[in-house]
Structure formats: C-alpha cells, structure tokens
Design brief:
With 368 residues, this protein is an alpha/beta fold. The chain has helices at residues 22-37, 53-61, 72-80, 95-106, 117-129, 153-164, 186-209, 225-229, 247-250, 318-322, 337-341, and strands at residues 17-21, 42-43, 67-69, 85-91, 109-114, 134-139, 168-174, 216-219, 236-237, 263-274, 277-280, 295-298, 301-304, 307-308, 313-315, 329-333, 346-351, 354-360. Helix content is 31%, strand content 24%. The strands form 2 sheets. Strands 1, 10, 11, 12, 13, 14, 15, 16, 17 and 18 form a 10-stranded mixed β-sheet that branches. The chain has an 8-stranded parallel β-sheet with strand order 2-9-8-7-6-5-4-3. It binds pyridoxal-5'-phosphate.
Length: 368
C-alpha cells in the first residue's frame, strides 16, 4: 500500500511519513558530483544512508563511479536494480555470507574489505571452488578504532597475503576517518582528517614500494569529502549523508551551508494535554535520537523535541505549544539520517509542496 497519493499536497500525507524534498536531493547530488568532476579522486557514494536504489541510480547518472554498501544484503538489493560496481566497506565473515558474496560476485564487479588473514583464506577458498575471483581492499585503521589493520607493515603483510591467493584480487586500501567527519570546526576537522588520510596514503606508498599496486584507495565521508577528495593518493570518496543530509551534519561548518536539508519526517499533533505540552504521533520507532533530539521549526524558531517515547514525541515549549493544535501537521528534521531512514518502508518524494513520487526504501532493515 502506498503511503500517499501522487499529486497530493504534502500536508495531506498520512503520518508519520518520511519525506524527501526532490529539489534539495537533486541539488545535493549535483553539487557533490560537480566537486569531483575535475578531481583525480572519484565519488563512490555510500548507500547505507538512503538505502534506496532510485537514489543510487541518480548518483550514478551524475557521474559516481560505483556505490559503497555497508552490508551484503544492501549490496544484493542494489545489484537487483542493475548496479554492478559495488564496494562492500565491511568484513564478510562466515560460511553462509561468503557463499552469498560469491553468488553476488558472479555477475557484479564486487570489492570487499578485509582485515584478517583467515578471512582472506576463507573468501579465496570459496571463490576458487566456485571459479570466481573477488576483489578485496585491505581495511586500514586510520584512527577510528573500529575495524582495520594498523597502517604500515601489518597492512603490507595482509596485502601480500592477498597477492599469494589464487581467487582474490588485491585492489588496494580502504580507511575511513569516521572519528573526524562530524568535528564541527573546519580547521580542526581538516587537521585531524589529514592526519588520518596521511596514514592511509603513506601505507599506499609503502606497499607500492614493495611492488604491489593499489588501484583503489578509498576514504572519506560527508564531513571530509573535500579534504579526502583533494588529498593526493586518495582515489575514491565514500560520502553518504550529503544526499539527504540531517540536523547533525547541518551544524558541521562548511557542510550545513553547502548541502540542503532534503530529509524530514512529517508528524501530526495527536494530543494537547496542557497549554505547555503537545504530543505528536512520531516516537523513536519513526525517528532516531542517538545524535540528539529531532529538530523542528515553529514560527521561524528552531526547537528540539523535548522527549521521545516508542510512539510519542513530546514538545514541551509553552510558546510553541500555544500555536499548535490537535490535528496540526509538523515537519521534524532527524539528527541522524541513516538510522531514521532505516526505520521506514517509503520515501514520499516532494517537489514544491506536492507528492511527485513514492520510492520504496528497498534496503531498509537489510543488516545481514
Ligand atoms: C565505512 C564508511 N564509509 C563512509 C561513511 C560515510 O558516511 P557519511 O557520509 O554519512 O559521513 C561511513 C559512515 O558511517 C562509513 O561507515
């Protein structure tokens, strides 16, 4: 069942509903594409944010070289929509998943991140048994302290291990400087991101001096797209949030002013128990809050939602509550787009206040 009718005003869409402003989305996609047009590095957008093939296809049409996925099941969804060049920026572990990875590699140009010798052997063995070759990038921990081998010697060791296997092809390196992407001050972000990117690019140099070529050196997020995208030695940038944006990135210097807020959640006032309290029909099952409370604009004032229960949102601002009544429709800006989008089945695509399209968020919930 579609959540809304094409052609109806957005205020008629039943709530809670995820909206994407199409003018803003297309502006963001074109803006990012324009940045990469004359750069050596290319854009490989991360689709974990929007999880929607229709949006990924727009990004590719504007010049992205391929896509980045966080999960195998996300990659399967994207491949079903005809997208062939896919980097999985995560470790694929275990017999079942490696089996699916092989199936995906049969008809796609697939690259997957690795950071352990055992995983390289397991993927290679399964690939050999099925007569396919899988591209791998060695993930380097550039300071985020998540996955990845340390820079330098350990990365070289794993690259050489890949080179010695029959059915995996060493494609290069990946290092995500996620600890820097939302640093609000631009000078600080630039300094910290460059430190992290240097570790990655120095590792590239070290490996290439030993005669092993890195075709791909992938890094970057929305907060660091122009830092990573201009850093000599980086070949690809994996920014994701820029397409839809969120309130967290909106406060990051140089990012909020560059990309437009395309994503919002439409919600309805369902109760006004007192003069200073309004309750809406969207709680934490419709909008995430790990980066802070969702933001709303009332009478040109930006406010934060006061609290969220499972299915209720509370606004406890006397001045705001005064102007709101049961049945009123409001728009919230999520503080984190990726985890909010993952809660929804559909995007209602809005242009100039009217529903133009409905897109299924096909990879939502795909975390296996
Ligand atoms: C591996 C990886 N690459 C890139 C990104 C960039 O995403 P964003 O553009 O949302 O900062 C992320 C975000 O979590 C990530 O985990």
């Amino acid at each position: 069942m579609n959540p809304c009718e094409i052609g109806c005003p957005k205020s008629h869409v039943d709530t809670p509903a995820l909206l994407v402003d199409l003018d803003a989305l297309e502006y963001n996609i074109r803006k990012m594409a324009a940045f990469f047009k004359d750069k050596e590095a290319k854009l490989r957008p991360h689709v974990k944010t929007h999880k929607t093939p229709a949006i990924a296809l727009k990004q590719l049409k504007e010049g992205a070289v391929g896509i980045t996925c966080q999960k195998l099941s996300e990659a399967e969804v994207m491949a079903r929509s005809g997208i062939r060049d896919i980097l999985i920026s995560n470790q694929i572990i275990g017999k079942q998943k490696i089996g699916r990875l092989i199936e995906l590699a049969r008809s796609n140009d697939l690259k997957v991140a690795v950071d352990s010798s055992q995983n390289v052997e397991d993927i290679s063995e399964a690939a050999a048994a099925n007569r396919v070759t899988i591209g791998v990038v060695v993930e380097v921990d550039v300071g985020m302290n998540r996955c990845g081998v340390p820079p330098g010697e350990p990365a070289l060791g794993l690259a050489l291990k890949v080179e010695r296997q029959r059915s995996v092809k060493f494609m290069g390196l990946m290092g995500y400087e996620g600890h820097t992407v939302t640093l609000s001050s631009h000078p600080e972000r630039k300094r910290e991101a460059r430190k992290a990117l240097s570790l990655l690019v120095d590792t590239r140099k070290f490996i290439e001096e030993k005669g092993v070529r890195c075709t791909i050196v992938s890094a970057g997020g929305t907060g660091t797209y122009e830092i990573a995208g201009s850093f000599p030695g980086i070949t690809e940038v994996q920014a994701g949030s820029y397409a839809t944006m969120d309130a967290k990135y909106g406060t990051v210097e140089g990012i909020g002013g560059t990309f437009k807020q395309a994503l919002s959640l439409l919600a309805k006032v369902i109760s006004k128990p007192s003069e200073d309290r309004v309750v809406i029909d969207a709680g934490m099952k419709a909008i995430s809050h790990e980066f802070g409370m969702p933001v709303l604009e009332i009478d040109h004032r930006r406010l934060e939602l006061s609290s969220l229960a499972e299915e209720h949102g509370i606004i406890r601002h006397p001045a705001a509550a005064k102007s709101m009544n049961v049945g009123d429709v409001i728009e919230l800006i999520p503080t984190h787009g990726c985890t909010t989008i993952n809660l929804h089945d559909f995007f209602c695509g809005i242009r100039k206040g009217i529903v133009e399209c409905v897109w299924r968020i096909e990879a939502r919930g795909k975390f296996q």
